[in-house]
Amino acid sequence: MATLKHYINGRWETGVTLGTRENPSDLSDTVAEFARADTAQTESAIRAAADARDEWALSTPQRRFDVLDAIGSEILARKEELGRLLAREEGKTLVEGIGETARAGQIFKFFAGEALRIPGEKLASVRPGVEVEVTREPVGVVGLIAPWNFPLAIPAWKIAPALAYGNAVVFKPAELVPACASALADIISRSGLPAGVFNLVMGSGRQVGQALVDSPLVDAISFTGSVGVGQGILKAATARQARVQLEMGGKNPLVVLHDADIAQAVDCAIQGAFFSTGQRCTASSRIIVTPGIFDRFVGALRERTQALVVDNALKRGTEIGPVVSQAQLEQNLAYVESGRHEGAELLVGGQRVKRDTEGYFMSPALFIAEPEHRIAREEIFGPVACVIRARDSEHALSLANDTPFGLCAGVCTTSLKHAAHFKRHLRAGMVMVNLPTAGVDFHVPFGGRKGSSYGPREQGRYAAEFYTTVKTAYINA
Q1: Do the beta carbons of residue 198 and residue 163 sit within 8 Å?
Q2: CA-based nearest residue to 227, from 450, 477, 398
Q3: What is the mean pLDDT of residues 133-144?
Q4: Which phi and psi angles does 255 have, rounded to 5°?
Q5: Residue 1 has pLDDT above 80, yes or no
Q6: Which runs of E-coded beta strand occur in 211-268?
Q7: Helix residue ranges per DSSP H, 31-171
Q8: Where in the sequence numbering do the catalytic residues fall?
Q9: All structural domains of the chain with their residue ranges
Q10: CATH superfamily of 253-433
Q11: Which residues pair with 337 in a beta bridge?
C-alpha cells in the first residue's frame, strides 16, 4: 500500500509521522496509510501559498474557469470510483457516496462559471469629473479546515470558490478521511494551477490546524466542525484580525403539524434523521409533533425506523451504513443510555449490531422525549432522534426555536398559511417545507444563525462575501 503524501508547492512530500485509516464497515480493511505533518511542514505549505498568491490573484477569469472546469469534469467522470472510495472510507452507502461525489463535481463546475462573472460596479461620484469603481479582489491565503462527514463535497465548496476568486489555498482535511482528500488533491494537482496555489497538509488539529489559525500569513480561515473547536478558532484568528467563517452544527427541528401528509412527513423524518447514519449537521434530530396526528405519525415512524437496513456501506440494499469511528459509536450509545436514564421512552433501536464484517454498526434509535432531555438539547451526530409532543402549532414553533443552534428547520403541513408562518418565524438559516432538513442545493447559500454559524454564508454567489474583499477606486477623469 502506497503511503498518501502531502501536496506542498507543487510537489508530493512525505510527513513527519504516519497514520492509518480503516474501513468502518470492515475493520480488517485498511483504506489508507497517510503522512502526518507537524507545525514546521504546515508553515512550509503556508509560505508556498503566500509566495504563489499574487500570480493567481492576477490570473485571467478564463484561466480560472479552465482549471475549475477541468477539476469538475474529472470528478464527474470518475464519480463511481470516487464514490466507492468515499463509501469505503467514511461509511456512507454507495449510493450516497456516488451522489456526494457528483455534488463535488457540480460545485467545481458552478464556480468555474462564477470565475467568469465576478461582480463589480461603476458609479457616478457626487463630485463632477470623478468616477467610482467598486471591484472585488481575492483575500489572499486561505486556510480551509474540513470535517470527515462530507469528505468530498465540503472541501469542494471551500476550495472551488477560494480558487475561483483568486486565492491561494492550504487545505487540512479531517484525519478520518485522508484517502478522499488525497484523491481530490491529485485531481487538483493536474488541473494547471501554478505551484503553491493549492496545498494539501494532513495531520492533527493541534498541529496543522493550529498552525493555520496562528500564522500571520493566513488571511482567512474557513472551518466546519465542532462548536468547541470553532469557538477556539474564532478567538485566536480574530485576535490577529484574520477573516473567519465557521459552520458548527445544529440541533435541527422538523415540525409535523396536524394537517400534514403522514407518509410524506415520515419520509422527511427518516431521511433527515437517519440517512448518512445521522452524521450531518443538517440532520433533523428533534421531531416536534402536534396533537391529532401524534399517535399515527409516531406509529408509522417507528415501523419505518425498525425496517431500515443497517449493513456494510458497499453492500447492495444497505440503507444505513456504519458509524464513522469507535469513538463516535461510543458517544452515540452513551447518549442512548442518557436518554433512557432521564426517562425518555426508547421506541426502537439504539444498540450496536453485528454483521458479516466487523464494523461500527448501530441500529437507528427513536425516542419519545421531553424538551429538557439531553438527547433533545445536544447535537449527537449519529442515528439518534427524538419525537417531542407539542400542545399546538404555536407551541411547536416555540419548541423548534428553543435551541442555541439555528442551522436548518423543517415543517410538514398541507396548509399554505402554516407554511408561510413557519417559514417566516423559524429562527434558522435554512427552512424546508415538506422536505427533509438534510438536503441542500449547491448553487444557493448555506449557513445558519445563533450558535450554528459565524461569518458570511458558504456556497452559491454568496461565497464571494468571504473569499473576496471590496476595493473602491476614485478616478479623476
Answers
A1: yes
A2: 450
A3: 98
A4: -90, 130
A5: no
A6: 220-224, 243-247, 253-256
A7: 39-57, 61-77, 79-90, 94-115, 153-164
A8: 247, 281
A9: 3-248+452-476, 253-433
A10: Aldehyde Dehydrogenase; Chain A, domain 2 (3.40.309.10)
A11: none
